[in-house]
Write a structure and sequence with these properties.
188 residues, alpha+beta, 4-stranded antiparallel sheet, 39% helix, rod-shaped
Length: 188
């Protein structure tokens, strides 16, 4: 007599390979084990991209804040410049200010229209040399006028990206006309 359907089924289930292929009990764990590393890469990649975008925006804010604070004054002293650098660098919080450089320069166009450095101060960078020539965008100054010229650079690095690259450099330049005087004077 032939085997019934139930007998054939039970015989097939006794074979280890067939039983393994039909068993879906550990399938979710295997899928999770395969997908989890990819999920981690996406998570840390998104975190890293967000941190880099934030650092880039803050570098721009540092440049325009420093230029704005200096352009509002009729004159600035050493104490004023220390305050400008402190206020501007505070915008980077919670990022480190160690790789931050800020250079504030007052550029005056002489009677011949040449742009010359009237004074310059730097935070973690050397100031420009007084009376040296500076190239500015066309039309920014005319004879007898001045502009506050701020250069900011920041070398961003994080624990996540340090395994891939050393640092990512951000730079921003800001130009603002003095508001209370033809040129901002520098006092000691």
């Amino acid at each position: 007599m032939g085997k019934t359907c139930n007998q054939a089924k039970s015989h097939r289930e006794k074979r280890p390979l067939g039983r393994f292929l039909r068993n879906a009990g550990g399938l979710a764990a295997v899928e999770f084990a395969l997908i989890f590393p990819l999920m981690l890469v996406f998570y840390f990649g998104t975190f890293e991209a967000t941190q880099m975008l934030t650092a880039g925006r803050r570098v721009s804010a540092v440049a325009y804040t420093a230029a704005d604070l200096v352009a509002q004054a009729a004159s600035v002293s050493n104490a004023d410049m220390a305050d400008v650098f402190a206020a501007s660098s505070a915008l980077l919080y919670p990022l480190s200010t160690t790789p931050l450089t800020i250079r504030v320069t007052s550029v005056v166009a002489n009677s011949g229209g040449a742009n010359k450095v009237a004074w310059s101060d730097g935070y973690n960078i050397a100031p420009r040399t007084v009376n040296s020539n500076v190239t500015l965008p066309a039309g920014l100054t005319s004879a007898g006028t001045s502009v506050i010229f701020v250069e900011v650079s920041y070398a961003y690095s994080s624990p996540v990206s340090s395994t891939i690259t050393d640092s990512i450099d951000f730079a921003e330049v800001a130009y603002l006309k003095p508001r209370r005087a033809v040129s901002v004077a520098r006092t000691n």
